[in-house]
DNA sequence: ACAAAAGTGTTTCATTTACACCCATGT
DNA sequence: ACATGGGTGTAAATGAAACACTTTTGT
């Protein structure tokens, strides 16, 4: 017997992945397609999500949804907002879909975002036809998912300035320039390399490895890692008022 | 005919109020009391909250809940987290209450906090027996409301450092020391008065009025106001990475 | 030898921190 | 006159911002 769904409550997941090579911050989306008599009713993308089961916490639902799509567990996740507008699933495109899927059209969704590495996800033969899209080149999106992604992105932008979550998006071994590129991708700004470099290297929790890049057709860069242990140890709450 | 409730979805409101005189950051709570045959089953406090109506957005529910309790509208509010643990309403104290109120015991609540001035709320003859409690001296609380308040408070602590929401808790005319006292109350820290004073007075959006305190039995202090217009005009996003 | 990205130092400016006494007013 | 909280200034230290060239490597 299947677990029982809560019919008017779902979790939607904005899965962020960073591709070090293309320097692109991406969002993982799944295909939504519906036709009747060769008549295409719905053809766009949506976030991955599912109803909450009766026995589950919201966090567990989010974890399950990610695992179902990618096979991954133990990824950084954050619940960032609930969306409950009564009209959020009532656009012209959404109605046939909802009818087909027997959704409750007044469904509240609790939205999470995940941070992971694009390279950790294998999409070949993905049963949801999942695909990565650069955050700035999103396809046509169903429901209110464009808004949800936008709010996740805003939260990420703020949060990456004050917490070391950036490293969740990078490989375990990275270069200083990787970090800079990622900040530039997320924030849409340019950063001075010398200042950034000095700042980062001076952090005790940024550890230079005995290793350099291999297989690059240029001067190979020094590799570093992030030590969460050291970060936690030296973390000090800062009460700087900047209004 | 009454609007139709969504039975498994509610909004709970953490109403923060600051009392300038006692320098106390308070939370507004309502009484929860139930007895049968002179047998007290439930006697504690809870947050104010209510089910979401079918036609309402979540924000509208929160606004309605606050208005119902205090008569106030147009107060600062923020949705900060959804709570959906399947066991969140199943403690020994909560069960008789839920039975009595015909709640769905698997109710998800979307939590908001409000910031307002204690003095704006009149509690005489309040039909919910509402009362203010200092954030550090909360009474026995029902459901998971202690956790909800704690999370609201954490969010407030972070947010007041980077956004001028502190002024939502103060009267329109305040002294520099009022602001300092409030920061100290919220953050639980001590601040150097000279440094704080200089910092604040140098902000263009902190405007010295042609007025001083009246009715105080000491040297009356200069009154100031906060100009949101000027704040918005000179606001600049800051991309300082502090990890 | 050349292309391409990695890596490096110094100066200026702004902000934060530390710190102790006099002042104005009401009683 | 006195008690009470209001109000003030300076110097040192830290952190951010601006800025251009050399080095290393693979091809």
How confident is the prediction overall: mean pLDDT of chain A?
Answer: 95
Tell me about the biggest sheet of chain A?
A: 7 strands, mixed
User: Secondary-structure element order of chain A, as H and E?
Assistant: EEEEHEHEEHHHEEH
Proportion of β residues of chain A? 25-35%
Task: Walk me through the structure.
2 copies of one chain form a homodimer. The termini of chain A are far apart. Chain A has 2 domains: 5-162, Alpha-Beta Complex (Nucleoside Triphosphate Pyrophosphohydrolase), CATH 3.90.79.10; 172-234, Orthogonal Bundle (Arc Repressor Mutant, subunit A). Helices cover 28% and strands 31% of the residues of chain A. The radius of gyration of chain A is 20 Å and the shape is elongated. With 243 residues, chain A is α+β, with helices and mostly antiparallel strands. The first copy, chain A, has 6 helices and 9 strands; from the N terminus they run ββββαβαββαααββα. In chain A, strands 1, 2, 3, 4, 5, 6 and 7 form a 7-stranded mixed beta sheet that branches. A two-stranded antiparallel sheet of chain A has the order 8-9. The model of chain A has no long low-confidence stretch (mean pLDDT 95). Chain A binds a DNA duplex (27 and 27 nucleotides) through residues 175-177, 192-195, 197-199, 216-222, 240. Chains A, B: This is NUDIX hydrolase. Chains A, B: GO terms for molecular function: hydrolase activity. Chains A, B: Residues 167-226 form the NrtR DNA-binding winged helix domain. Chains A, B: It holds the Pfam family WHD_NrtR. Chains A, B: Residues 11-150 form the Nudix hydrolase domain.
């Amino acid at each position: 017997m299947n677990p029982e769904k809560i019919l008017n409550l779902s979790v939607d997941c904005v899965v962020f992945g960073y591709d070090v090579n293309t320097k692109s911050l991406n969002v993982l989306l799944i295909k939504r397609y519906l036709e009747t008599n060769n008549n295409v009713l719905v053809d766009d993308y949506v976030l991955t999500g599912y109803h909450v089961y009766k026995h589950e916490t919201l966090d567990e639902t989010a974890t399950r949804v990610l695992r179902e799509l990618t096979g991954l567990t133990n990824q950084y996740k954050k619940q960032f907002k609930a969306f409950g507008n009564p009209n959020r699933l009532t656009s012209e495109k959404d109605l046939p879909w909802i009818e087909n899927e027997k959704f409750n059209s007044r469904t509240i969704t609790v939205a999470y975002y995940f941070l992971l590495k694009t390279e950790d996800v294998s999409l070949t033969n993905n049963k949801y036809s999942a695909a990565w899209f650069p955050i700035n080149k999103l396809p046509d999106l169903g429901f209110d998912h464009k808004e949800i992604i936008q709010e996740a992105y805003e939260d990420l932008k703020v949060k990456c300035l004050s917490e070391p979550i950036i490293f969740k998006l990078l490989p375990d071994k990275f270069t200083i320039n990787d970090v800079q590129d990622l900040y530039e991708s997320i924030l849409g700004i340019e950063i001075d390399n010398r200042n950034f470099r000095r700042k980062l290297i001076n952090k005790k929790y940024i550890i230079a490895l005995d290793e350099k890049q291999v297989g690059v057709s240029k001067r190979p860069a020094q590799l570093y890692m992030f030590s969460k242990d050291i970060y936690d140890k030296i973390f000090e709450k800062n009460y700087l008022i900047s209004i």
